[in-house]
């Protein structure tokens, strides 16, 4: 009877080891994906930082990179703890999983609160930034960001194309100019002199609305990914506790 119990115990431990090892591989991949999203956000969308009087966008990217790196390191520790069957490493791994889980909850709450503040700030500042800084000396990053924003999101002006009428750049122009060339559906030199709907993004909506939709969609994606990773972590913590109970006392 004791021999059967010992075999069952050994078999259960082996199964738990493989399950936890598989979990750690998936967890490691998830960490790599989060890190990649952070790098992509920082590299591909960093132009929009100059349009916001807030470090929210860049801070979010750095947080994602840091979170991805921590998850990868935690996954490596988990693999080592599982393969070596060391209780001390398993405890460290369990604590790290619990800390990451709690940080995800805190980050989720802060992201929701910060988005509400960012949304109000975006509405207040984007129009002023576009009107006063576009094509002005020393504001090349803003000009580049506005042009990219209007082309990428197929919009013109902060609320609509008429916002450009009061811009510093338009009013100081020596020749007739209605909107920047980046408002055109097919950009070319001086194409912004004609504001017909067939030529510019006149009826598609302003850039504030498009940028809000983009930021919100990014938060939804991050929320879905975070929820998925949090679920994996709960499963991982359960496997870790079971394996810890099944292992013999570690002499080290």
TrEMBL record:
A Gene Ontology biological process noted in the UniProt record is:
cell migration
Subcellular location(s): the record lists: Cell membrane; Membrane
Q: Does the keyword Transmembrane apply?
A: yes
- Highest taxon, organism lineage: Eukaryota
Q: Which InterPro entries match?
A: Tetraspanin/Peripherin, Tetraspanin_animals, Tetraspanin_EC2_sf
Entry membrane topology:
Multi-pass membrane protein
* Swiss-Prot/TrEMBL keywords: Cell membrane, Glycoprotein, Lipoprotein, Membrane, Palmitate, Transmembrane, Transmembrane helix, Ubl conjugation
> Which Gene3D superfamilies does the entry link to?
Tetraspanin (1.10.1450.10)
Q: Which residues cross the membrane?
A: 21-42, 62-83, 90-115, 219-244
Q: Name one GO cellular component term.
A: plasma membrane
Quaternary assembly? Interacts with integrins ITGA3:ITGB1, ITGA5:ITGB1, ITGA3:ITGB1 and ITGA6:ITGB4 and with CD9 and CD181. Interacts (via the second extracellular domain) with integrin ITGAV:ITGB3. Interacts with ITGA3; this interaction modulates ITGA3 glycosylation pattern. Interacts with F11R. Interacts with RAC1 and CDC42; these interactions mediate physical association of RAC1 and CDC42 with integrin adhesion receptor complexes.
The text of the family note is: Belongs to the tetraspanin (TM4SF) family.
Protein name per UniProt: Tetraspanin
- What lineage is this protein's organism placed in? Eukaryota, Metazoa, Chordata, Craniata, Vertebrata
């Amino acid at each position: 009877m004791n021999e059967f119990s010992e075999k069952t115990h050994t078999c259960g431990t082996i199964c738990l080891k493989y399950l936890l090892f598989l979990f750690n591989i998936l967890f490691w991949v998830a960490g790599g994906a989060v890190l990649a999203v952070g790098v992509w956000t920082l590299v591909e969308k960093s132009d929009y930082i100059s349009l916001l009087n807030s470090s929210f966008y860049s801070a979010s990217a750095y947080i994602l990179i840091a979170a991805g790196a921590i998850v990868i390191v935690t996954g490596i520790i988990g693999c080592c703890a599982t393969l070596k069957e060391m209780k001390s490493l398993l405890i460290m791994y369990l604590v790290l999983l619990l800390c990451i889980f709690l940080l995800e909850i805190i980050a989720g709450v802060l992201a929701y609160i910060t988005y509400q503040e960012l949304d109000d700030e975006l509405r207040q500042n984007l129009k002023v930034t576009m009107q006063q800084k576009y094509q002005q000396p020393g504001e090349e990053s803003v000009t580049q960001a506005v042009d990219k924003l209007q082309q990428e999101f197929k919009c013109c002006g902060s609320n609509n194309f008429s916002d450009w009428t009061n811009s510093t750049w338009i009013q100081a122009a020596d020749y007739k100019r209605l909107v920047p060339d980046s408002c055109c559906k097919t950009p070319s030199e001086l194409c912004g002199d004609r504001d017909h709907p067939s030529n510019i993004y006149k009826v598609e909506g302003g850039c504030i609305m498009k940028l809000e939709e983009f930021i919100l969609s990014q938060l939804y994606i991050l929320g879905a990914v975070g929820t998925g990773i949090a679920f994996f972590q709960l499963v991982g913590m359960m496997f870790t506790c079971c394996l810890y109970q099944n292992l013999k006392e570690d002499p080290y």
